[in-house]
Amino acid sequence: MTYFDDFDIKPEIKKAIREMGFEEPSPIQEKAIPAILKGDDVIGQAQTGTGKTAAFGIPLINRITNDNHVQAVILTPTRELAIQVSGELQKLSRHLNVRTLPIYGGQSIGHQIKALKQGVQIVIGTPGRLQDHLRRKTLRLDRVNTVVLDEADEMLDMGFVDDIEAILKQINVDRQTLLFSATMPQAIRKLSKRYMVKPVTVSINKSEVTAPSIDQAYYKVLEKNKQESLCRILDSQNPDLGIIFCRTKKGVAELTEALQARGYLVDGLHGDLTQPQRDAVMKKFR
Length: 286
Hints:
The protein is of the alpha/beta class and 286 residues long. It has twelve helices and seven strands. It has helices at 11-19, 27-38, 52-63, 79-92, 109-118, 127-136, 152-157, 161-169, 186-195, 226-237, 249-261, 275-284; strands at residues 42-45, 72-75, 100-103, 122-125, 146-150, 176-181, 200-203. It has a seven-stranded parallel beta sheet, sandwiched between helices.
């Protein structure tokens, strides 16, 4: 059995991991972290929710120095994921002087420029907004030593391939490239062959994804019956707390309104909410 203390990482990171309540790495972390620490380019195939952010985040933070320039870039398909990844890295680096910055569309670019001028070491962003900064020359990538493509298949599905390639071409070829994706379509393999050097592939079996203490079930219903079916499940299961994931922010808002109208104690969380609004939502369910 492997423990986080077995990895050759800074004691400050180990302390942060313990404070987050983790002792044993997940399967993707156990396989990916040693290879990334060695300096290999890595292709990681893993579903969302398997701990892949820490799989690349722990060795990435371990490599960051005190130099006040951008040393790592993480590309994500959405601003929600950029914010999520940034938050995870901040927790892992809480005992180190590591500064991260999520940059994405929908937020004031002036605010982002000001933050970049103050100095950050890790930039997490969507391809389109990263390209905006590169065109404005408000972001320099010439000293980046690590690049992460997170949810690479989603980024390609969203049409970001040209932006991704344009960004990679501006980064020193003597870098470590990490690619994480739930699936490995031909376009991903082509991208890896073009921009990665002898990558090590790590993947986890579907049987390794779910924690043994979690029961899973699914219900096959017609689209028009989804809301009614959800209400029946809530009534029959009567959960104390729960999370419902929707595909879009509009879907979150519409479902929240519909469930509130039926008398359920619910609220919505999505990327358009301000931080005080998010805090208010979370406070309701503590």
